[in-house]
TrEMBL record:
GO terms under cellular component: cytosol
Annotated organism of origin: Nocardioides simplex
Protein name as catalogued: Aspartokinase
Keywords (A to Z) from UniProt: Amino-acid biosynthesis, ATP-binding, Diaminopimelate biosynthesis, Kinase, Lysine biosynthesis, Nucleotide-binding, Transferase
Function: Catalyzes the phosphorylation of the beta-carboxyl group of aspartic acid with ATP to yield 4-phospho-L-aspartate, which is involved in the branched biosynthetic pathway leading to the biosynthesis of amino acids lysine, threonine, isoleucine and methionine.
Annotated GO MF terms: aspartate kinase activity; ATP binding
Length: 425
């Protein structure tokens, strides 16, 4: 039997009882004959509390020191988890990200993993110990400073270690039983998806489904590492995230066309009103937004009115960046010569995702009909090969999700989803 990497999120290790429960699970995996490497997140809401603390001390804490502070959260959990395993009569050794060989670039707060050299982890498991690694952190190759990978980054630590150790599987434990056809908190009939492709998972995560850290899925796809998303509170089989061919093989003849419905309330919309319809205008607008380091999502440009030769351009962006974008664009007003700016952050995005849609016509029509029957007005539309997204009023997000879920027969008769833990992951 091979190497299993298990990652436990904050809600699974929220308190001493949680730590002991997880320790028992880890020991059971070891007893079943596997070599076990565990990645842990900070306990409960520790990371948020540490950020609050930093902000109390300084409105703009230096990024280097913030990383140093936040990585302490994962260090606490790795040490106490190792103690709990010792108490069950098994050897466990804890390692910081740096000790585990997680090498990153120097971008504090959002460092990228550039290499993983898990020599000490390999030695530990070869000697029969269970290795416990602090998630979400590494060490910069150039500055040798401690870095963090961005919120939710422990998922990525786990997949990166699994790849470097050639593990059989990377198990990601949270407080829900897997990936669902929609967020069970707003869609009570949501069903657990047994298998889903990397591509669909990426689309779901990018469209706001809080399932896995985006970069962890990208990493898993690049190296074809199967991820098993499951709950640490139950023994149930979770959701397998695998390559598309492996989903197709398992699925019945009548494969689902739509795999899930995702929603995102964290976006805002900016409309640039009265833009002269001539070359270079859109370029100037989006250059200004890009130079402000803002990631935009959907863009819609209207056909210009014949009488005025003016057009409107709308785009969506994370609402946290709204103010910055408005300021940057306002500076451009005279140069580009548009009439004005509108800002709206009471919007939401609802997306249907499914690999099957590229080969079946009428998916958008069915989606839009369902929205219209539910009285939901569509403000913007965008698509990819395997996704259709709409922007709607924030107050209509739940209605839109429920309508899409029903229109594509995604619901189950029983209530399947159980949320066991707290708010953390
Ligand atoms: N503790 C970090 C966070 O809350 C990393 C993680 O949980 O994956 O974002
Ligand atoms: Mg967390």
């Amino acid at each position: 039997m091979g190497i299993v990497v298990q990652k436990y999120g904050g809600s699974s290790v929220a308190d001493a009882a949680g730590i002991k429960r997880v320790a028992q699970r880890i020991v059971n995996t070891k007893k079943a004959g596997h070599q076990v490497v565990v990645v842990v997140s900070a306990m409960g809401d520790t990371t948020d509390e540490l950020i609050d603390l930093a902000n109390e001390v300084s409105p703009l804490p230096p990024a280097r020191e913030l990383d140093m502070l936040l990585t302490a959260g994962e260090r606490m959990s790795m040490a106490v988890l190792a103690m709990a395993i010792h108490d069950l009569g098994h050897e466990a050794r804890s390692f910081t990200g740096s000790q585990a060989g997680v090498i990153t670039d120097a971008e504090h707060g959002k460092a990228k993993i550039i290499d993983v050299t898990p020599g000490r982890i390999q030695t530990a498991i070869d000697e029969g110990a269970i290795a416990i690694v602090a998630g979400f952190q590494g060490v910069s190759q150039t500055t040798k400073d401690i870095t963090t990978l961005g919120r939710g980054g422990s998922d990525t630590t786990a997949v990166a270690l699994a790849v470097a150790l050639r593990a059989d599987v990377c198990e990601i434990y949270s407080d829900v039983d897997g990936i669902f056809t929609a967020d069970p908190r707003i869609e009570p009939h949501a069903r657990k998806v047994p298998r889903i492709s990397y591509e669909e998972t990426l689309e779901m995560a990018a469209q706001g489904a809080k399932i896995l850290h985006l970069r962890c899925v990208e990493y898993a796809r690049r190296y074809d590492m199967p991820i098993h998303v499951r709950s640490s509170f139950s023994e149930k089989e979770g959701t397998w995230v695998v390559k598309a061919e492996d989903v197709a093989q398992e699925e019945s003849m009548e494969a689902a066309i739509i795999t899930g419905v995702a929603h995102d309330r964290s976006q805002a919309k900016i409309t640039v009103v009265g833009v002269p319809d001539k070359p270079g205008e859109a370029a100037a607008i989006f250059r200004a937004v890009a130079d402000a380091q803002i990631n935009i999502d959907m863009i819609v440009q209207n056909v210009s009115a014949a009488a005025t030769s003016l057009t409107d351009i709308s785009f969506t962006l994370p609402s946290g960046e709204g103010q910055t974008a408005m300021t940057a664009l306002d500076r451009l007003k005279a140069e580009v010569g548009f009439d004005g700016l509108q800002y709206d952050d009471s919007i939401g995005k609802v997306s249907i995702v499914g690999a099957g849609m590229s080969s079946s016509p009428g998916i958008s029509a069915r989606f839009f009909e369902a929205l219209s029957e539910a009285g939901v007005n569509i403000e913007m539309i965008s698509t990819s090969e395997i996704r259709v997204s709409v922007v709607v009023a924030e107050s209509q997000v739940q209605d839109a999700v429920n309508a899409a879920h029903a229109a594509f027969d995604l619901g189950s008769d029983e209530i399947e989803a159980v949320v066991y833990g707290g708010t953390g992951r």
